[in-house]
Design goal:
Distance between the termini: 42 Å
Oligomer: single chain
Number of strands: 10
Length: 276
């Protein structure tokens, strides 16, 4: 029976945020040539002629605009408030910090056109992929939820303005440590946060076709694996019935995913599609 594996954290966030770049990025720039002078941004709410068009409030741009993201007044962030707060602060930072052209790339991929529809798209992502079932898991004791810790994590991220990467909120240490799973390997689970942590192991909630979840330990290099179940740790593939790194040129494969980035599997061997 096939299974789907739920990994906790923000890895799936790349599906939404894609290539959005931050205006306030601290990455070094090459100084060999002077940077081109950008035209001054307009004022007020304007629909920008990107592809597709996006509507941006230019009066709330930049670091100070990013810090206007709203969080609940309560000292603790309850499980039911996580996704609305998450979608609000992330979309506020996207529209305050990213260049309009970059916003448009994700707008086209995710079907939003302004900050309100961005929040709706991110809510769907959060409730459907990032945090499904966690409210029930907290209520039933499978997850110990530190609402004050989540509030500090969110508030600290907002305070950074445009300095923090747009996609790192769920994987910030303060957030990861604020939801602690209590379910051991082999026991039933209901969300990606349920499984107890263990040093040196990656544990996940694996669901069967009927929706029943069980905490499983993902397997490391050299361990026997089932190709269908996706049992290998992050960065490994199930190749030749064992978890191992993706294959290099000339190594045996069944699928393109068995091969290293930039390679394919045309004839059961990893190869470049376009040889140099």
């Amino acid at each position: 029976m096939s299974a789907r594996v739920m990994r906790r954290g923000g890895l799936a966030l790349a599906l939404l945020l894609g290539v959005v770049g931050c205006k306030g990025s601290t990455e070094p720039t090459v100084q060999s040539e002077p940077a081109p002078v950008r035209a001054a941004e307009p004022r007020g709410t304007q629909t920008v002629a990107t592809t597709p068009p996006v509507t941006i409030d230019f009066d709330r741009r930049g670091a100070e605009g990013a810090r206007t993201a709203e969080l609940p007044a309560a000292e603790e962030l309850a499980p039911v408030a996580f996704c609305p707060s998450y979608s609000g602060v992330v979309c506020r930072k996207i529209f305050a910090c990213a260049e309009p052209e970059s916003i448009a790339v994700d707008a086209e991929a995710q079907g939003f056109s302004d900050e309100a529809t961005c929040r709706a798209a991110l809510m769907r992502f959060c409730t459907g992929l990032l945090l499904p079932g966690v409210v029930e898991s907290v209520a039933e004791g499978r997850v110990r939820w530190d609402g004050a810790g989540f509030k500090r994590c969110f508030a600290g991220w907002v305070a950074l303005g445009c300095e923090a990467p747009l996609g790192d909120l769920p994987d910030r240490p303060e957030c990861r440590d604020s939801a602690v799973g209590t379910v051991e390997v082999g026991a039933l689970c209901g969300s990606a946060f349920d499984c107890a942590k263990a040093d040196g192991e990656e544990r996940v909630c694996a669901f069967d076709e009927e929706g029943h979840g069980v905490c499983e330990r993902l397997k490391g290099p050299g361990e026997v694996c089932d190709l269908v179940k996706g049992e290998c740790r992050e960065g490994l593939v199930c190749r030749g019935e064992r978890c191992q790194a993706p294959g290099g040129i000339g190594e045996v494969c069944l699928f393109d995913a068995d091969c290293q980035a930039g390679l394919a599997c045309p004839d059961k061997q990893c190869a470049r599609l376009f040889p140099r």
